[in-house]
Every structure is written in structure tokens, then in C-alpha cells.
Amino acid sequence: MFAQFEEILGDGESIDFSICRQGNRLTVLIQPCFNGSDPGSDDPQLAQVRAILSMPLCVTDTAANLDQDFPTCLTQYVGSVSDGKSAFAQAVSRIREAAKAADSLATATTADEKTAQTPENAEDNDTAPGGANLPTDSKSLF
């Protein structure tokens, strides 16, 4: 069971585990306490997604049934949380890569705009002044 907990916990994270008796039944609550949003991220939406991954596992049953079924239930829960954390980490990674690509594109676009605004061949004196390429067979002086 503890190897499964270790699988879903990051450094400094914890799991609150409580058992409450209600008559002849026990309620087992497992509440992951993750470290807010991903380190280096200030996005509140990412923090919300991370909080969703902290969804608790709460099971109420007789002690005999919990002895029999709880390990399987815990394995499924840990698998779901682990998959969710992995998908979250991949999404954050893709978002960061996209942000870097957007920054690179913006930098390249800005550089291209500056190049386009700079007159090319400003020192080239071989070009004729405007109007010098008029046809010579014109009969009008104007």
C-alpha cells in the first residue's frame, strides 16, 4: 500500500489518511495534499487542474469487505491519480514549449519588420532618379 502512495506523491507532498467508525461500518478517507500548481507556473487554471487531481478517495463498508476490496480500490485510485498527474505534467510541458515557440516567432517577426523598414541599398547611386525612364519617342514636352 505504501509503495502505491509513494507513486503518486511528489517531493514535499502528503496524503491524509483517516478512518471513522459509523455503527458496524468504517469510512476510509484518503486525501492527497499536492503542492498547489506546478513549480514555476503562476496560471490559476493550472492550479485548479492540479487541485482536481487532489480528489479524495472515500469508501464506506464493513471491515471484512474493506479488508477484501480496499486494496483493489486503492490500486485503481492510485492509477487514476498517477495517470492524471502524468497528463497534467505533459500538458504543462506542451504549454511551455508552445510559449517558447510563440516567443521565438514573435522575436523573428519583429526582426523581419525592422529589416523591412530599413531602406535597402541606400548608398546605391547607380539607380536613375524618378521619371528618368520616360519613353523618348513621346511628342509631348510635359
UniProtKB/TrEMBL annotation:
Specify where the region named Disordered lies, as residue ranges: 103-142
Q: Which InterPro entries match?
A: PRTRC_protein-E
Q: Which NCBIfam families match?
A: PRTRC_E
Q: What is this protein called?
A: PRTRC system protein E
